[in-house]
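Appendix B. Chain record.
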Amino acid sequence: LAIALMAGMLYQSRFVLPLREYQGAVAQLEAVAQSLDPEAILVFNEPATATFSDTFGPPLKFMYGHDVITIREDDPTFLSWLQMKAQEEKRPLQLITVEPVSPMLEDYFVLEPTAFVPSRFTHLQSSFTQFPSVIATAYYGLEIYTLTQSTVEAAQEPLFVDVGSLDSAYIEAGFYGKEPLPGPITMRWTTGDATLEMPDTPASGYQIEVQAKTSRPDGVPERVVTVWLDAQEVAQFTPTESWETYSFFVDLGEETAVSELSFHIETFNPAQLKINSDTRDLGFLLDWVQITPISD
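Structure tokens predicted for this chain:
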């Protein structure tokens, strides 16, 4: 009977036994650790319902000796204490994130881009009706920023946002997660209304460059993207099936501080069109944006 039970268990486990969960995870974690300052206090900033810091914080603390702090509420007093602690101990503060950063953190610190570490972890997909037999991939586009004391006035220099890479400091709303596609180009899909945050640097004009494309199915025509600075429409372009760089100059007439760059486009939904199971309302793919303020 015991032999029969063991044989039955082995048979039922035939899908699971050959599969290797989290293959290569240690090497990828090592790549993250190598991108960090060994003396850094690590900061995670996420909502209370998120688990990103619970996934990466413990191994970075217990395997690599970093102090780890997770900020889940807006508390300027705590940020002041954190800054004082880092100064007293002469240690850098480094933020690890995969999602947009809270405005409070952006107001208090300058986020200096330090490293981008794309990580992919394989795991068995959960199943409630049968034995798990499918390997799923979890993608984390880890962004590392060094936090320094915020200055009163930002320098008037070009702002380059590498969307899908080091972009969490600039994304305000309307973007889906980073696309885990092979190759050097990083990107995100937009929704119908997508907004990037800009530094409030007064300028009389802006040179704006955008690298974008679309991937619309047959029968879904290309759509125009309108570009807005705050509440003013300033340009239009029509993304195609290949990566193109669109450039336009915006003359504001007088020194003006602009806080938002927005894109508006009519979306399509792959699931509703019965193309695949993707239920997102998709606008266009954005690779990077460069914004150069110009003053008279």
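Further analysis of this model is presented in Appendix C.
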